[in-house]
Amino acid sequence: MTREALINLFLFLLLPVTAGAAWLLEEPFIITLTTKVAILALAGVGLNIALGLGGLVSLGHAAFFGIGGYAMGILAAHAQSFDPLMEVTFLIEGTKSMPVIWLVAVIAGALAALAIGALSLRTSGVYFIMITLAFGQMLYYFAISWPAYGGEDGLSIYVRNGFPGLNTLDPIQFFSLAFGVLALVLWFAGRLAAAPFGLALSAARQNAERVETVGMSPYRLRLLAFVISGAITALAGALFADLNRFVSPTMLSWQMSGEIMIFVILGGVGRLYGPVAGAALFILLEHILGGLSDFWHVYLGILLLLVVLFARGGMIGSLAGRAVAHD
Amino acid sequence: MSMLLLIEQVLNGLQFGVMLFLMAAGLTLIFGVMGLINLAHGSLYMVGAFAAAAVAGATGSFVLALIASLIAAAAAGALVELVVIRRLYDRDHLDQVLATFALILIFSEGTRWLFGSFPLFLDIPAALSGPVTLPGGIQYPAYRLLIIAVGLLIAFGLFQLIARTRIGIQIRAGESDREMIAALGVDISRLYTIVFALGAALAGLAGALVGAIQSVQVGMGEPVLILAFVVIVIGGIGSIRGALVGALLVGLTDTLGGVLLPGLFATFMEPSAATAVGSSLASMSIYILMAGVLLFRPTGLYGTT
Amino acid sequence: MTDALLQIKGLNKAFGALVATDDVSLTLEPGEIHALIGPNGAGKSTLIKQIAGGLKPDAGEIRFNGQDITALSTVARARAGLGRTFQISSLAMEYTVLQNAVLGALGHRGTVWRFFAPVMKNADLRAAALTALERVGLADQAGKRTADLSHGQRRLLEVAVALTLHPKVFLMDEPMAGLGASGSKRLTGFLDGLRREAPILLVEHDMDAVFALADRISVLVYGKIIATGTAQEIRAHPEVREAYLGDEVPA
């Protein structure tokens, strides 16, 4: 087993062990924090497919995170007010069922990523960064100015949505659900990276000309990566909104995009478990530093600066050394 | 809508555009010369506004406040360039984005720590606080007219600086070929510090000028920063002319969209729905403009390759 | 002669006042090696780029296998059967040698849109990649990171990746550069046999290799082809001697 595989195993077990210990000690707040780590890590795993594998520096992933959040908020709000979403040609009702909400979130996230990606990927480099950022802001302002779903104040739901066979109101059960989704997506992302698509996508990041020369279109590879990435991040958004029973334009804000990116970078860009490490560290810092000082973002900023300037592989990179080619 | 109101809104759009230009000019220069994407540019805008508010509060002089904003932002810019930014020139854009994002966190929380979370207020000098009557009987705030004038003056000065002066020649040389400026015997690291400080000073001045219309608070820089990004994406990265054209386009689109779109929708929708749809679309209008420009010119109006 | 596989007619490309390609016409027949020589800055790489698809000509036509490909993208040309190697190695540097070759095989199979099965465990792709690596003599380097290869080895890997594509035509831009004397000799022998699989348009500075291999040679000077002919005709061509070969004519 390589060192990175050991670290990955440790990170994978870290979350259920922490949540399990908190459950035994009857500390529901810790379980909720661990759930938050799992969900934010999921968002990071989504971004990492675009950023780490594809080399696409998207500063607009909050758009997908927020779309997932609003998919949850809108469907649940209609369900709790018994007011159908649409009754023009079809009758579409709201729902309180997580699987349906997740499906809607994933589809909406994928479609948004398809539209944003199709335009943004016509450019590269700094243009791409700025344009993804701008599209994220576009949705943010749209959410603020659209009054139907709470505008700037956001949208609350009274009771967490349900999942067949589980009591999602119980913190440990909701954690298990979120962790199960994370594990499934980690498995998928790992397979994806090692699959033909992953090989070609990562090659397009290293050398687009090479990929063209063997007859594959970097644009299409990147667009699909962006769509998959957006869909996963939207799924995380739906879970995050369910965790808080609340969604607001903050989920679409560019600071959110920055934070998702921080999870990926702190953990180690392009590492499968990087976002798990990064999200865990972020939440840990938020609660340790946040307890010491109201201005903990200063310390976060300094830490991030130091990682970028001096420890470029992030946590996993520093512990496991250079990435080995998956051969 | 009356003609007078429309003209007033056009002036508002110009004023907004001119402010965006001050932000975008620095960003685009810094990218053009150093190849650096600087998210912390909005923080320098904030630094300028806070410096102005602090000095105006202490001395009561608006002119001193403006001077303070220039000096404080330029100094902060130079300091940041020396300590952090120069380590980033050879890095990829991802590292630049992250490091300058980290700088935003540090600047924002540092400012909150120094000045607290409550907004400060910077008063418009009494002499400029009233309206002036323009030809055609339009009443328009004198201060906003001053902003337009100052902005256009700085745009003109910047074009002259780049076209005529020694430092301008170095900047243009730096944009086209880094090795060339080294060959010209220019001290590159000094040039970079100067360009960064110049961009910072422009951002700081914009912050101070706008701070007198809005409130001065932590986080004020980022929305403007993102609009400035939209401006230079539209104008073409590295082009000062593009920044000016893009800034005016964005300023006018944003202002006029907010006024005209709800009215436009009201002609065929019921009023409350028209307001909702119109204002939502208006908030998206500049991004739609950007997407439109990109469809036809992926490198912006004045961008090269 | 049989029908040309690659046919270039009246190609023109200018960068401002600089005419990089000046009314160039040439053909590549099945089974031949057609060498393109010329002094530095003559526009050889610019010409290759236009044929491979990275650069759009101002005027002229490129026909490949009976089809006008002038408007096609690089990707479409590669899929149509143009196998290109670069003057400056263009590889996925973080990958192993084998991964680069598998990438080529994957491009040839067109099975990139698969999302679950590990690509490096695909026996078919591995075999295709290893065969190509063996042919250029890189099989023993298969597990090495590409970034750790010598320049000469990278050139060979370029050739190997092109082999995995089983192209109808090879476009090779200075494959010998950095190989050293014995390496050049070995590759010369290999290319000699390769022409039976697919003809080669060869840009090369190594004159020993060019005169040993080329069925025909075209000489490019200031973007213009000043002569095309067999090695002997080119050696004897007065304009070529004057403009280009000069002292470099091999004895």
TrEMBL record, chain A:
For the keyword Cytoplasm, the answer is: no
Q: How does it sit in the membrane?
A: Multi-pass membrane protein
Query: Which spans are transmembrane here?
Result: 29-50, 62-80, 100-119, 126-149, 174-201, 221-240, 260-285, 297-320
* Pfam families, A to Z: BPD_transp_2
Q: Which InterPro entries match?
A: ABC_transp_permease (IPR001851), LivM-like (IPR043428)
Q: Name one GO molecular function term.
A: branched-chain amino acid transmembrane transporter activity
Where in or outside the cell? Cell membrane
Matching CDD domains, A to Z? TM_PBP1_LivM_like
Its cellular-component GO annotations read:
plasma membrane
PANTHER family in alphabetical order: ABC TRANSPORTER ATP-BINDING PROTEIN, HIGH-AFFINITY BRANCHED-CHAIN AMINO ACID TRANSPORT SYSTEM PERMEASE
Protein name (database record):
Branched-chain amino acid ABC transporter permease
Q: Which organism is it from?
A: Roseobacter insulae
Automatic annotation (TrEMBL), chain B:
List where in the cell it is found.
Cell membrane
- Supply the CDD domains for this chain: TM_PBP1_LivH_like (cd06582)
Which topology term describes how it sits in the membrane? Multi-pass membrane protein
Picking any one GO biological process from the record gives: amino acid transport
- Domain of life of the organism encoding this protein: Bacteria
List keywords of the entry alphabetically.
Amino-acid transport, Cell membrane, Membrane, Transmembrane, Transmembrane helix, Transport
First-listed, main subcellular location of the protein, grouped into a coarse class: membrane
Q: Tell me a Gene Ontology molecular-function term this record carries.
A: transmembrane transporter activity
Residue spans crossing the bilayer: 12-32, 39-56, 62-85, 97-122, 142-163, 191-213, 225-252, 273-296
Q: Name one GO cellular component term.
A: plasma membrane
Query: Pfam families from the entry?
Result: BPD_transp_2
Give the family from UniProt.
Belongs to the binding-protein-dependent transport system permease family. LivHM subfamily.
Protein's name according to its UniProt entry: Branched-chain amino acid ABC transporter permease
| Source organism of this protein record | Roseobacter insulae
What taxonomic lineage is listed for the species of origin? Bacteria, Pseudomonadati, Pseudomonadota, Alphaproteobacteria, Rhodobacterales
Automatic annotation (TrEMBL), chain C:
Q: Does the keyword Secreted apply?
A: no
- List keywords of the entry alphabetically: ATP-binding, Nucleotide-binding, Transport
Classification via PROSITE patterns: ABC_TRANSPORTER_1, ABC_TRANSPORTER_2
Q: Which CDD domains match?
A: ABC_Mj1267_LivG_branched
Q: Which domain of life is it from?
A: Bacteria
Query: What GO cellular component term, any one, is given?
Result: plasma membrane
Segments forming domain ABC transporter: 6-247
Keyword Lipid metabolism among UniProt keywords: no
MF terms (GO), sorted A to Z: ATP binding; ATP hydrolysis activity
* Name under which the protein is recorded: ABC transporter ATP-binding protein
The record's section on InterPro entries has: AAA+_ATPase (IPR003593), ABC_AA/LPS_Transport (IPR051120), ABC_transporter-like_ATP-bd (IPR003439), ABC_transporter-like_CS (IPR017871), BCA_ABC_TP_C (IPR032823)
A Pfam family this protein belongs to?
ABC_tran
Organism listed in the record: Roseobacter insulae
